[in-house]
Specification:
Layout (H helix, E strand, L loop, with lengths): L1 E6 L13 E4 L3 E3 L10 H6 L2 E3 L5 H4 L2 H7 L8 E5 L1 H10 L20 E5 L5 E4 L2 E7 L7 E6 L4 E4 L7 H8 L4 E7 L7 H7 L4 H7 L8 E5 L6 H11 L6 E2 L5 E3 L1
Parallel strand pairs: 3-4, 4-5, 5-6, 10-11, 11-12, 12-13
Antiparallel strand pairs: 1-2, 1-14, 2-3, 7-8, 8-9, 9-10
């Protein structure tokens, strides 16, 4: 199994500025931020499942656009997996015939372009030997992270979150764990903003990891480009034992 980082930035500007999206093999997406724009129509047509962490635009903006772009090349609906509350938000505020056509009933209710599939934290979805499991997240809107397990190795992605002991309890107990991707959007100078927006900053992440251990690579996503170097310096100092590195768009993990 391969996981390719299409976008991982906390904003659209800057080098590798696509927002969050991860491609699993060639048929599964985790989030559909602007990083999806890296894919061709042929690649979009191969995607059968999209797992959404939460409803914010930097994680969903290209979901309606990719449905439209590949519609003529698909014979089955695109299945969108998310918590029920997130699916309700997407239906009410995105696929609502005002912002974008309601592809849950287009071309027809019997043969729609999009099918919604609700999931719950802790429940895994197995797709041809690859298991995606929703993990707890704490954000400004209902949110989850995901664990992706090939059977030979696993990767976890926090999605957008702030202080989240439940997530780290699960991570520290996971077998076959190779990579941990966690967001850190703001430097400590903007801790108040991080707290209000329910994101990590280095001191909040360090507090969560104080008594946590795992033998896996720690990668940092969702860096705001203006503060990226500062955030990484602070993380290097606070989390030296984990040797954190920024996640780069284009990286491919083999699990």
């Amino acid at each position: 199994m391969k996981v390719r980082i299409l976008g991982c930035s906390g904003a659209i500007c800057g080098a590798g500025g696509g927002t969050t999206s991860l491609l699993v093999d060639n048929d599964i997406l985790i989030d559909a931020g602007t990083g999806v724009g890296e894919l061709s129509v042929a690649e979009l047509a191969h995607i059968d499942h999209v797992f959404i962490t939460h409803s914010h635009l930097d994680h969903t903006a290209f979901l309606p656009l990719m449905v439209d772009a590949a519609a003529e090349h698909r014979t089955q609906p695109l299945t969108v997996h998310a918590s029920q509350v997130t699916l309700d938000i997407l239906h009410a505020h995105l696929f609502n015939n005002l912002i974008w056509p309601d592809f849950t009933v287009i071309p027809s209710a019997a043969a729609p372009g999009v099918r919604f599939a609700a999931l719950e934290v802790g429940h895994g979805t197995n797709l041809r030997g690859r298991t995606l499991t929703a993990l707890p997240a704490q954000h400004a809107v209902p949110a989850v992270g995901y664990a992706v397990d090939s059977g030979a190795g696993s990767l976890v992605f926090s999605g957008d979150t702030t202080t989240n002991p439940g997530f780290w309890s699960i991570v520290s107990a996971m077998p076959r764990l190779r990579h941990v991707i966690v967001e850190t959007a703001y430097p400590d100078a903007h801790r108040a903003t991080a707290v209000a927006a329910r994101h990590y900053c280095p001191s909040l992440l360090a507090a969560d990891l104080r008594d946590v251990s795992f033998d896996a690579e720690l990668l940092i996503s969702h860096l705001k480009p203006a503060y990226a170097a500062q955030i990484m310096q602070e993380l290097d100092a606070a989390l030296h034992r984990f040797d954190p590195h920024p996640l780069d768009a284009g990286r491919v993990f083999v699990l």
